[in-house]
Amino acid sequence: MVQEIRTKKYAIVDLEATSAGVDAQIIQVGIVLVQDGRILQTYETDVNPHEKLTPHIKQLTGITDSQLAKAPDFSQVAREIYELLKDAVFVAHNVKFDANLLAESLFLEGFELRTPRVDTVELSQVFFPTLDRYNLGYLAEELELNLTAAHTAIADAMATAQLFLKIQEKILSLPQVTLAKINQYADHLVYESSQVITELLPYAPVKLDENLERIMDLVLRKPTYYAKARHLAKEFEHNLALLDLENRPQQAEFANLVSEHLTDTQVNFIQGQAGIGKTYGYLLPILAQDPQKKVVIATPTKILQDQMLQTEVRQLGKVFHINCHSLKGYENYIKLDRFWATLEREDDNRLVNRYKMLVLVWLTETETGDLDEIKQKNGYASYFDELRHDGQNLKTSLFRDVDFWQRSYDLAQVSQVIITNQAYLLTRIVDDKSFLEDAILIVDEAQKMPSQLENFSRRRARLTSLVSDVEVLYRQSPDLLTRRILENTSFHLEQLADLVGKSGRQAQIDRSILQLRQDLQEIGSHHLPRLAEVLAPQFDDFWLTQESTEEKRIRFLNAASLDFLFFKDLIPTSTKVFCISATLTISRRVNLAQLLGYTEEDVTFDQMPQSKQEHQKVWILSDIPELQELTPQRYANLITQEIVRLSRLGRPTLVLFNANQNLQAVSTLLNENGINHLAQHGHGTAANIRKRFERGESKILLGSGAFWEGVDFANQDQMLVLVTRLPFDNPQDKFVQKINRYLRESGRRPFEDYHLPLTILKLKQAIGRTSRKPLQSSAIVLLDNRILTKNYGKAFRDMLETVCEVEAIRTKDVVQGIQEHFKIEEK
């Protein structure tokens, strides 16, 4: 920090206490005095509480009863502490607890502490807006603070002092125009935290950094462009060396296949097992052989898209100066006009005003405008929904020239490597036929594309929104006949809402749909665009669903076509397509190419040899009850019991669920038993809790959905996976019913030819997520013994045995078996 800057004196305080309750007694005090950007003085003392510590406090702090027995009473150190604090601003990480407890303790000794208070938690949330968490341990790791003895008062106070200095430095790095805008909302921060901003405002730089630009009172970061891409070597191994990566035989073989097929006119399907490094395996030979071609990579999920961007694709940009761009749907980006509108209005909600401040900071840092970069949205998600882009960039926009969605769209035209997700790829190529013209398209995990196509061909609308649209049009319409038709439309929409959750009412639903279509034809579809979209002529299958939140129940009208949408029909003939998949042949009678609309003449198939993983092993619990016979509560109890049993091994453990309802029930039971864990949905998004898990915040992660086939775990040397149920699709799912109909009509058996092999593949992929690097060791426990008891179980066992060793085991023996497995790997 610049020497000439003068600030108030700040006392950074941390207390350790006998508990976090109202009857807490201080057992340790740490104080660090800071002024003008420098640490002036430190103070620490133990305090005798005259009561025994709980085992939890002893374990947390490392403080012992014998240590405190020798310490002074608080009355003996109260004056000394008060003299340090009386003319300073009181600062703490979660200031409410420390300030209230210390002020009360001092008051009882005759000292009244009335100093201003500053909270470093909230200041960190504002000035470091993209961090995942804001506890002191995490901030110390991310911001490189010195926290060598966490949960001792002086160590925590010193780390908080360093954090406070980092916050001051960050404030002083911001342009004055941004800081002045932030200061308009700073009074909404807790206590007197705004003083820190106000005090430093005059010292903030007036002149903008060359990487920033100002539009109105918003300061934005300019995008980074590489001037000229570097040529890649023709040899794959040489390019790997430049990336500081080791040569892997299977990866080199995969790269050679890609290189050989680049000049083919056919669509190339390549099967390769997890963990061989497929991303570099296809990107390096393509960029080396045809550096002028645009390359589009489509991942199955946004999680994998972000994961690939942050690893392989970003490294390519750094080393070879390849212009790489991550492209998502418009709703992922901030619309600056909408944000500006929220700045112009007054909001009483303290959290909303804090969000305004952190977004102002974030805009000086982000090059993408992707709202997923901000991890604090859960507190008041509706505010961020308000900021989302609507896909339009009108000439009247104040920020037309710096619109993030427009910038993303334009970058997609000029970037050499574009990474997107399969769902958005489908939207983009329907809206913009030229997007893939003469490009190379790589569909990563292509086995997910059939379900993506189905989701893309569906529409869904909230029934309450449709009714609202009709009511608005009714009020605006002077025509009596039109109003009568709208009354009928509203009646049928409300009738559909009443049918939600009631079985055997499909005939009633179909009659209402028929009447709604007639009404829409008479009214004019342009007057009710949302209703027109869900009742479009291509849809001939309609159903009702609902989603429940803590506050309300949301009812939806869903529409789909009974006919398949084929991938082949959407792709320009000039596009070179590679479909990379963990499997190509779903069964002897069904393959992936067929489901995407291709004939044998359209495609080539290549299958990489698969090696058995020596460091993985699967255990099937042989003595557990049939899961179908268990009530939901007994099923949750059984899973919880096995998690507790496996937790004794002390290894990172991923627990895979098919249904979120079961996941939440188990999470509740673990909470009741005081077992630390991370649960998808309950503790954040899949991407967020994966990061927290890999950092070691908990050794247990409960996941569903993307964790089956969209999240890798490469940082763990040893890992446990508990599979709670075989991942069969729900037979009531509309896509399952559609594919069943399609297969029967073509003379194939849905279960044997499609669902069984696809479930086997999904299990195989889940196992592969914990085999992502050499010598990574994992143990997989299957809680579903249908593999041993059902006729189709042999197909599962045969597949598993091609991947790794498999053993049926009694529940009481599994811990010892895994111990022996990991012990072998540790030698």
From TrEMBL:
SMART domains (alphabetical): DEXDc, EXOIII, HELICc2
Q: Name one GO cellular component term.
A: cytosol
Domain called Helicase ATP-binding: residue spans: 237-496
GO terms, biological process: DNA replication proofreading
Record-linked SUPFAM superfamilies: P-loop containing nucleoside triphosphate hydrolases (SSF52540), Ribonuclease H-like (SSF53098)
- Which Gene3D superfamilies does UniProt cross-reference here? P-loop containing nucleotide triphosphate hydrolases, Ribonuclease H-like superfamily/Ribonuclease H
Range of residues in the leader sequence:
none
> Which molecular function GO terms apply here?
3'-5' exonuclease activity; ATP binding; DNA binding; DNA-directed DNA polymerase activity; helicase activity; hydrolase activity, acting on acid anhydrides, in phosphorus-containing anhydrides
Keywords attached to this entry = ATP-binding, DNA replication, DNA-directed DNA polymerase, Exonuclease, Helicase, Hydrolase, Nuclease, Nucleotide-binding, Nucleotidyltransferase, Transferase
Which E.C. number(s) belong to this protein? 3.1.-.-
Q: HAMAP family in the record, alphabetically?
A: DinG_exonucl (MF_02206)
Role, per record = 3'-5' exonuclease.
Q: Which family does it belong to?
A: Belongs to the helicase family. DinG subfamily. Type 2 sub-subfamily.
Protein name according to UniProt: 3'-5' exonuclease DinG
List the gene name: dinG_1
